[in-house]
TrEMBL record:
EC number: 5.1.3.2
Reactions catalysed according to its record: UDP-alpha-D-glucose = UDP-alpha-D-galactose
Record-level GO BP terms: galactose metabolic process
One CC-aspect GO term: cytosol
Pathway: Carbohydrate metabolism; galactose metabolism
Positions of the NAD-dependent epimerase/dehydratase domain: 5-67, 81-214
Lineage, uppermost ranks: Bacteria, Bacillati, Actinomycetota, Actinomycetes, Micrococcales
Record-given protein name: UDP-glucose 4-epimerase
Primary enzyme class: isomerase
Length: 330
């Protein structure tokens, strides 16, 4: 049976994959967003600016089988739940709701941040609390609901550069050596965004309800680097650096410009990158090889000229050379 799907968004990394996955499965997708960036032509588009007082007026009088919301603003969630007529509500939360980073692969029973009181997320330091508040609204107001808590996403369309930087750098090295992080045992549960989108379609088709983490099998940073190098089809030597050298070079970690991604050193939070997803796998979540995830991320980076020029994660050629010199003790 074909489903009518209302998607708030549709032009971000996950949103684009959701449009593709639902339409490929024969479902009708309506994207409700501002439209400042294009949505897939396969989807119906309705202009909705959720900052406006009458933002949801264009959706009045219609019904959908499924509504999917990705917002981090609790007020937006409450307004939508009070206005939109949808039989099944799917909210895309985040593993950032978990309050502790010292639990290896936390499951859905792990403690979460208290819900924030504000209607809007104003600072990313409150991201986990904002997502908790959004979840609370869904649980209170949606009779049939599914809450999904994804971990770190990678693959096609990853505009953060977190999964694209290393395969791109391996494919475009500045020399025979590439700077990587020293802590190759750092654990990370990287999930391919296409696998997540496909699973969300599966959940919509089966009217799945409840709360589920969504994450890839946990691998070490070293295993991720090996898969990224295989995707690039090159062989380079690694120059390992630590957090101190990053600071000395004016670089950071995890994400953002001039950073080495897929790693974070946070006191008392050694497992911040891991998420347990056994329950989701029991409900149909599947995983493609890491090499394929990195290959898709690399293809996206090639299409936009690489992560550095886009202001995404990764270190510039000059910063990498500085890190190499520091690692050599020059």
């Amino acid at each position: 049976m074909s489903l009518s799907v209302l998607l708030f968004g549709g032009n971000g990394m996950l949103g684009r994959q959701l449009v593709t996955a639902f339409t490929d499965a024969g479902h009708h997708v309506t994207c409700a967003c501002r439209g400042t960036t294009p949505v897939d032509k396969a989807a119906e588009f309705i202009t909705v600016d959720r900052d406006s007082a009458d933002a949801l007026k264009p959706l009045a009088g219609r019904t959908w089988d499924v509504a999917i919301d990705l917002t981090s603003h609790p007020g937006f969630v409450r307004d939508a739940l009070g206005t939109v007529d949808a039989a099944h509500w799917i909210y895309i939360s985040s593993a950032s709701v978990y309050a502790r980073g010292d639990i290896f692969e936390p499951d859905e029973t792990a403690p979460i941040h208290p819900a924030m009181a504000n209607d809007k997320l104003e600072s990313m330091t409150d991201y986990g609390a904002a997502k908790s508040a959004c979840e609370a609204a869904v649980e209170r107001l949606a009779a049939q609901h599914l809450i999904i808590r994804p971990g770190l996403l990678g693959g096609a369309g990853d505009d953060t550069g977190r999964s694209g930087y290393y395969p791109w750098r391996f494919a475009h090295p500045t020399g025979p050596e590439v700077v990587v992080l020293m802590d190759i045992g750092f654990p990370l549960s990287l999930l391919d965004v296409t696998d997540l989108a496909d699973w969300i379609v599966h959940c919509a088709e089966h009217r799945t309800t409840g709360i589920f983490n969504a994450a890839g099998p946990t691998a070490t940073l070293g295993e991720l680097l090996d898969a990224a190098q295989q995707a690039a089809g090159t062989e380079v030597e690694f120059v390992p650096v630590d957090a101190g050298l990053l600071t000395d070079a004016g670089a950071g970690m995890w994400m953002g410009p001039e950073s080495l991604p897929l790693w974070a050193e946070i006191p008392d939070m050694p497992f911040i990158g891991t998420v347990g997803a056994d329950a989701a796998r029991a409900r149909g979540l599947t995983h493609r090889p890491l090499e394929q995830t990195f290959a898709d991320a690399l293809a996206f980076e090639e299409s936009r000229g690489g992560p550095i020029s886009a202001g995404a994660a990764g270190v510039s050629d000059d910063t990498e050379e500085t890190l190499r010199r520091l690692a050599r003790g020059d």
